[in-house]
What does this fold into?
Amino acid sequence: MKYIVVLGDGMADEPLKELDNKTPMMVADTPSIDLLALRSEVGLVHTIPEGMKPGSDTANLAVLGYNPRKYYTGRSPLEALSIGVDMKETDIALRCNLVSLSEDEVPYEKKTIIDHSSSEISTEDATILMEAIKKEMDNDIYRFFIGTSYRHLTIWDQGEVVDLAQPHDILGRVIEEYLPQDIALKEMMRKSYEILNRHPINLKREAIGLNKANSLWFWGAGTRPSLTSFEEKNGKKGAMISAVDLLKGIAIGAGMKVIEVPGADGTLHTNYEGKAIAAVKVLLEEDYDFVYVHVEAPDEMGHQGNIENKIKAIENLDQRVIKLLVEKMEEAGAEYRMLIMPDHPTPIHCRTHTSDPVPYLLYDSTKEQKNSWKYDEADVKLSGNVIREGYTIISKLFHR
It folds into this structure.
């Protein structure tokens, strides 16, 4: 038996008046998911422990079977694993976003945050900008490391876990009350604007209608993580397919194989088919037991507040990942169980994560099951299936 998780990051939502009080999942054309739902178990799962912040870090740890209350030490340390940074016990990791701030003739702290991803900046452009930051700002206390797209990393020697605002939570707001209390962090953010705003890369981006990546934003502080081996924990050899450093870092920490797919970039235009084909290959040709296929696009579209593109991201997940996975597994005559779900909702109306339970779909190719459920936020409630502890859903996938 082979096991697959297809994770549509932030796919769940809330009813929207623009969609006649339906959600993007309800409106999206998803024939592959619709067919599976008629032959699957569906229900709701709580992925965010009560009292913890709703994030892709805590939620994906839970889906992979790691109780966030036990294993979570911060988001950035997990990304550090992916980038290859060997943290000391005394190091603090910080997520270092390239964000877009307004260019009003006002002091830095009076500027407004426009875009947490700088128009989904390419890794190529971001690398040039981060090299400029490193040249001016790297020192013995603060070291900067280049990641993917807008997501980068700072290591703070002898630092502390400070409370920092998530940039995607404060879009459209004046940044003053959300800046770090730590003076050094605040000054580095101010200096980054001076370095980046008139950088040739940003002037070129502005000329073609893209948002400037004109400031750093620190958040997600944490200490070095320690995860139990996924294989030891579950008796399954696992692999991760994702464009996002966070998911790669979790996989590295858990001793899973990380598969790099050319063209997989975490955007709406990622290489969906490449992810599906890579998943089938690692299961059938490399004899792995389990693969986790993570697709970031629905979450990004939720943060952008883009209804049309969130629907498109869900349709791409259905028709370019799930359809292909099912076809290839059935052509090979393989027996498999597949779990389809988001990690958390990213509702269009608030453009950030929430802690609401998310719909799951569990399909077993060896089991004849017929029902009338649809796979969306509302219909799965009718099934009566509710998983209160999200980190136990992996046991359900593995028949335990």
